[in-house]
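Our consortium's second objective concerns turning raw sequence data into structural hypotheses that experimental partners can test. To show how far this objective has progressed, the report includes one record in full. It was chosen at random from the queue rather than selected for favorable results. The single chain below, 363 residues long, was entered without modification.
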Amino acid sequence: MLFALVAVTAVLGSSKMRGVISLLLGLAIGIVGIDSLTGQPRATFGLPLLSDGIDIVVIAVAVFALGEALWVAAHLRRRPADVIPVGRPWMGRDDWRRSWKPWLRGTAYGFPFGALPAGGAELPTFLSYITEKKLSKHPEDFGKGAIEGVAGPEAANNASAAGTLVPMLSLGLPTNATAAVMLTAFVSYGIQPGPTLFDKEPLLIWTLIASLFIGNFLLLALNLPLAPLWAKLLRTPRPYLYAGILFFATLGAYAVNLQPLDLILLLVFGLMGLMMRRFGLPVLPLIIGVILGPRIERQLRQSLQLGGGEWSSLFTEPVAIVTYALMALLLLAPLVLRVMNRSEESLLIVEDDKDQKQKASQS
C-alpha cells in the first residue's frame, strides 16, 4: 500500500504542490470515523452517522460527477457545445495496434492487486491510466477519447475481478464486497473455502472459472451492438444531459446507505470538486488517499503489534526490503532523468559554443 501511495505521485501533474495538497485532503477525509484501535471518534463533529466513515461511493460520485456537472454548468453559455461524432462499434486495425499493449499492462496491474488482501479494483485501474498516459506519445489526447486510456484501465478492472477469486477460494478471505457476498453464499450452502476446496468441490471451482469466460462473452455480445446507442446519448442537449447526470448521481449516493446525510455530503464534496477543478487540483490523488488512508493505518498498526511495537520489524522482511527499493527507484528515477537531461543540454551548449568559436576563427 505504501508502494501504491508512492506510485500515485505520477499523477500529481506539473505542479507537485497541488498534487500533494489533493493527496493530503484525501488522507484527511479517510480518517473520519471511529478509531479501530481505541474506539474514539475522529472528525465526526458529533454526528453518529459519521462513525463508520464516509463511503467512497459518495465521495467519488460527488467529486467526479457532481463537480464536473457544476463546472460545465458554470461555463455553459461561455463555451459552445462540442459535437461528438459517433464512430463504428467495431475496432479497426489502428485500434487493435494501440490497445494490445495497454491490455497486457492493465492485466499485469489488475490481477496481483485483486489477489492481495489490501488490493481492489480502484488502485490498479488508476495506476493503469497513469501508466498509459505517461507512456503515450500523445498524452494530450487523454480525456478526449484516447483508446489507451480505456483499454488499460478496463483490462486492469477485469483482471482484478478475477484475482479476487484467488484469496477467497484458497484462504476464505474476501477482498471486496462482491467476494464477501460470494463467501456468504458458500457458507450458507455448507461449502467452506480453503486449501481443500479444490479437492472437495472441483465442479464448483471450474464452474466459477467458466463463468468468467461466459460473463465476458456476454458483455462483448451486448456492448458491441449497443455501443452506438450509448454514444448517441452524448448528442442530448447539455442542460438535459447534465440534469440527468445530477439526478442519477444523487440517487446513487442516496442508495448507498439510505441516509439523508449522504445527500448533504454529496453537495459538500461536489462543491469541493468544483473548487478543485477551478484551482487546478488533480482529483485522482484525493480518491486514492481516501481509499488507502484507512488501510495503511490499519495495516501499520497490525504490523507493529505483530512486531511487538518495534519499528525495526517494518524493515527486516525480504518482501518489505524489495518494496522499499522499488519505492526509492520510483522517487529517484525522475530526478536522475532530469539531471541526465540537463547534463546533455549543457554538453550540447558547450559543443555549440565550440562550433561557433571555430567558425569565427576560420572566418
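The partners drew two points from this record. The chain has a mean pLDDT of 78. The chain has two domains: 2-318, 319-363. Both points have been shared with the crystallography group to help prioritize constructs.
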